[in-house]
Write a structure and sequence with these properties.
The complex is a heterodimer of chains A (272) and B (296). Chain A is mainly α. Chain A has 11 helices and no strands. Chain B has a two-stranded antiparallel sheet. Classes of the chains: A mainly alpha (272), B mainly alpha (296).
């Protein structure tokens, strides 16, 4: 271990304290007996019970999960295609516009994206509901997927693809049996990213959701505007727990698949 | 050119054209129409079914009333200025907080780096709304911060509903966007260069200012864009943490749309916001494209 200066150690300690303390406080106070959220009155899980009885939250959660599953799956397919086109597609008409449309949504203020999509849906008289939220979420999250996947496509050795082509595989076969397995970790993390972005989005969903479909962030926002509430603390804790578990599982899976790939490569070399 | 290649390009291309570019055209069109008490609440001026004659008539009668209105009412230009100022200050603060973290991560032992990286990324996966919400409890009048200050004997501070709370909120939620690109450049940095600088007589501090910092510029630039651009149009943070003094254009647009239901003015606000952001967005894209081509 290289020796870390006291400055580096304190930068990391303070930095991570800053990142995690607010969430730790939130989690601790979700087990607070009192409705007054800033006064500790003993341990209790009653707010979790109340949350499970809250129909509005449960309905919204169900809508949110469905939207996230559909939009992240479509976004992963489209985003992977877009990444492949950007990295391997060569020159084609309008390539700069295409690459611009991939990167612009990453930094586009959400209010603009939301407003413009809503005006589109109204112009083509598409009723606002789950479908419109899915379309909106797919559009911005496919750009994130394509950035994640294209960074993986750029980094791996192209000669394995070329070898497959030389051995007589069609470009499609080469993609399916060589490229896709190699970029799979990036495709999976792209899907996860798209999924969480969709779960998380308040602004774009507020514009594109109709009265028929309310998502969880919209529900949380409207109750948070009135101040801190113990139910929201409990809900936040559940969401933080799900995300933490998901990220840890995903990173373990990626680690294992990378280790297996390295092992396969080693064995292949040994057989030669 | 086979069918597969064409459809591989055409499908994502068509999706983005229809759901990203065309909507902007519609925003532009509505920003040029008049407010009307109907559903939808604007009087369209351009009817494409009328063909060329309609387009000519539209161009002849074109007026920029909504844009003129934006310049006449103090609210709007003040909100634009104040959004840019708040975003600049917060980007600078995020850099101040984020750089030491990224630097320390890059200096950590290689076996620690994946864990540290995950610790930075993890909050980014957690709901943005919840992370902003967590600060309400900390910063409010009887909040946790004031309780701690009270124990030490410091009088309570009024932070919630001020611009300071907005700065804290932006630094907190956008920190991973600053740390990750800077870490990426610092990690690739050739440590021989720093050692060479030190061999040639630089102190550690001088080596940092004259070698490490200049070489990490691409990461700093990418991080600053990733924080600055979305921060200008931020809605959630000013809405939950800011107060009456906080004037941000994202919030103005939201209120114009949802509360006043004035779609033409909301669209004009969006068009002008986009014009302000076009320069940083294009610079950001150039930066990314260059980075990608350098990696290829």
């Amino acid at each position: 271990m290289r020796n870390m200066s006291w400055f580096n150690v304190s930068a990391l300690t303070l930095g991570f304290a800053f990142l995690y303390l607010p969430m730790v406080i939130l989690i601790i106070y979700s087990f607070n007996e009192s409705r007054l959220v800033t006064v500790w009155a003993g341990f209790s899980t009653k707010w979790y019970g109340e949350l499970l009885g809250n129909e509005q939250f449960l309905d919204a959660a169900w809508v949110t999960v469905r939207v996230a599953i559909f939009s992240s799956t479509i976004a992963t397919v489209l985003g992977t295609m877009a990444a492949y086109v950007l990295v391997r597609g060569g020159r084609f008409f309008g390539r700069n516009l295409f690459s611009g449309m991939i990167y612009a949504p990453l930094v586009m203020p959400e209010v603009i994206t939301g407003l413009s999509l809503l005006l589109l849906f109204i112009a083509i008289s598409l009723d606002r509901g789950i479908l419109t939220i899915v379309l909106a979420h797919t559009t911005f999250s496919m750009c994130y997927v394509s950035v994640v996947v294209s960074s993986r496509l750029v980094s791996f050795d192209r000669s394995v693809e070329e070898a497959a082509l030389d051995l007589g595989a069609t470009p499609f076969d080469a993609f399916r049996s060589v490229t896709l397995p190699l970029i799979m970790p990036a495709v999976v993390s792209g899907w996860l990213l798209a999924f969480t972005l969709s779960l998380d989005d308040l602004v774009i969903a507020s514009f594109t959701a109709g009265p028929a479909a309310t998502t969880l962030p919209i529900q949380i926002y409207s109750s948070v505007r009135l101040g801190v509430s113990p139910e929201i603390n409990a809900l936040s804790t559940i969401l933080i727990a799900i995300v933490t578990l998901g990220v840890i599982t995903a990173s373990l899976i990626t680690k294992r698949s990378l280790a297996r790939q390295a092992e396969d490569a080693r064995r292949a070399l040994a057989e030669e | 050119m086979d069918v597969r290649r064409v459809s591989l390009i055409a499908i994502p291309y068509a999706w983005l054209l229809l759901l990203f570019l065309v909507p902007f055209g519609i925003v532009l069109k509505i920003s040029l129409s008049d407010y009307d008490l109907s559903i939808p609440p604007y009087a369209p001026k351009l009817d494409l079914s009328g063909g060329w004659a309609a387009v000519r008539e539209f161009l002849g009668a074109l007026d920029f009333d909504n844009y003129v209105f934006l310049t006449q009412d103090d609210l709007y230009w003040k909100a634009y200025l104040s959004s840019v100022r708040i975003a600049l200050v917060s980007t600078f603060l995020t850099l101040l907080v984020g750089y030491p973290i990224a630097h320390a991560m890059a200096q950590a032992a290689p076996e620690w780096r994946p864990t540290l990286l995950m610790l930075v990324i993890l909050p980014f996966w957690t709901s943005f709304l919840i992370r902003v919400y967590a600060w309400i409890g900390i910063l409010s009048g009887e909040g946790y911060l004031n309780q701690v200050l009270g124990v030490v004997g410091i009088p309570p501070l009024q932070i919630l509903n001020t611009n300071i709370a907005v700065y804290i909120g932006i630094v907190y939620t956008y920190l991973p966007f600053m740390v990750l690109p800077i870490y990426a450049t610092l990690e690739k940095l050739d440590t021989d260069l720093i050692e060479a600088a030190q061999d040639l007589g630089c102190t550690k501090r001088e080596a940092f200012w004259r070698v490490t910092l200049p070489l990490s510029r691409p990461g700093i630039i990418a991080g600053c864009f990733l924080v600055f651009i979305p921060a200008v149009g931020e809605f959630v943070i000013p809405s939950l943490l800011g107060g009456s003094e906080t004037l941000m254009i994202g919030k103005v647009l939201w209120e114009e749309f949802f509360n006043n239901r004035d779609w033409p003015v909301a669209s004009a606000v969006a068009v002008v916001l986009l014009l302000i952001l076009v320069i940083p967005i294009v610079l950001f894209q150039r930066n990314e494209q260059r980075a990608r081509e350098a990696g290829q």
